[in-house]
Amino acid sequence: MIEPEVAWNDSEANMKLQEELVEYLVQRVVERRRPELVELERDVSKLERIRAPFPRLNYTDAVVLVQRKGAARSG
What pTM did the predictor assign? Predict the structure, then answer.
């Protein structure tokens, strides 16, 4: 698990850092492991489209979305 965070960044800056890290990691996998992804019959075009910034939801909206998709609420 990777938790990119910088102590002096606010939440917005940390989310930007996290998005950029995910984008970088996915692109490196596509560059360096394309033959393996093709062998596994992965649609590489979907991975190639991953670009920051990503859509964001606040917590309340995320809970509503998860419940609408059929996940049970815990706690």
Answer: 0.73
